[in-house]
Design brief:
Helix 8 (286-295) packs antiparallel against helix 10. The protein has 15 helices and 19 strands. Strands 1, 8, 9, 10, 11, 12, 13, 14, 15, 16 and 17 form an 11-stranded mixed sheet that branches. A 4-stranded antiparallel sheet has the order 4-5-7-6, with helices on one face. A two-stranded antiparallel sheet has the order 2-3. It starts with a helix and ends with a strand. The chain is an alpha+beta fold. Helices cover 32% and strands 23% of the residues. The protein is globular and about 70 Å long. The relative contact order is 0.15.
Length: 509
Amino acid sequence: MKKFSSIFLVVLCMFLLAGCEDSFVEAAVKDTLTVVIYADPGSLDPHDTTGVPHHQVTRQIFETLVIRGDDGKLQPCLAEEWEYEDDTTLLMKIRKGVLFHNGEELKASDVLFSLKRMREDNTTAAMQVTAIDFQKSTIIDDFTLRIATNEPSPMLLAQLENPMAAIISEKAYIENNGNFFDAGSIGTGPYRLVSYRSGDRVTLVGNEKYWIEGQPKIKNLVVKIITDGSSRAIEAESGGADLVYDISPNDVDRVDATDGMSMVRSIGTKTEFISLNASNKPLDDIRVRQAIFYALDLDQIATVAFGTYGLKATGIISPGVDGRVDLTKTFVARDIRRAKGLLAEAGYPKGITLELTAPNTDQLRMDICEAAQAQLSEAGIQVKINYKEFNTWVSDMISGNATIGEYAFTASTGEAGRVLMRFMPEYSESKVFGWHDDEYIKVCKQALRTINDSERNKLFAQCQQMLMDAFIIYPVWHKEINAAAQDYVKGFKIETSYEQHYLQTVYFE
């Protein structure tokens, strides 16, 4: 019996040691970075949408001409260097030796094709290239491009940093008839597409011919889609993912307290707001829009929705953005009696019923909507909240279908003009508000072509005040960007310009 026990113990130890050895090997060879985002990307066309989760995926596949460095300044990426020949001519030198995933070398012709395609296909990214005069823009040689603008455009270079301005392969686009799935998703980025399972995950593998030596540092990348905020928090706490983006405010402290886990946080350049579409009845009457403003209480919304997480809105544009002004003195105080009086003046003494459109993927946004719904009902404004799938919500908002919406703008260029330009009719997102004002258009256009920073910012300040006076945008929250990271994850940084966090520098320790 003793002999049998000894043999059993020896065998058991062998199994335990083998298991430990397997664990050591597994830890040593962990070669997959798992990241969680809060919505399906919807497509892999980098020019397709303004949705942040979309670009958190596509920016790993496609790259832009310039990026922002740690100091916030623009620095080379696919463009190796550039210079302004005059106020309306930008000369760009394209980096040599950069290969697309199909093995073709990046050329100036691909760059010009990409920029043209944004406009000619009427993509959302067209707003990034509005200033470009393509008839005058020319290819000088394989690696030199001259970009001409209709007039001075001091924001152009910064707009080309936005992930919507990613460079695509002309050959791959033509061969795949504009299909960006499967073989058509060809960029120069650190990762290339393996598979995309809508609603579940995107699987990528490192680009073995990537132009930056030693990157990506992790061979495989899996981007999981988890739309429910509580489930994302659990995924972080349980160690189901290495990085989890956008932990909801009510879960942040708990996740941060989890052993082996920490939160990476930064105030970004995005401002959440309630939008009022002035082209949709009854909001075409400014008195109705004013009534909505008077019925809302921002302090109460803040308490319910986000507390001290991020910043309660003090303007249309986030603090730290060049040209931004504090508008708190112009915010109207809550006055239910005044709200009811305005509705009566507009011909609605018994109140009105409206629909508020919002995404079903973000608890903070849902909390904002429900707080607003309760407040508005006290003034006789009954609100039905229509929660929609993320990409459907974005589409409905920018097509002008939403009467009231929960939406956001990001000042991705680091200055106010990136937000203010989107209220002009030539930009697709102007339909969110359905508002047309000739004076606003005149002042905003003047600002966008003004090279002197001080003079440009004075004009931007006028624009921001005009928007508040029109009662079409009710600022709520300046977003704090976050990600939950396992302690062994190193090299991860928050990108505040458009939340398109770069993953090729991430590694395990």
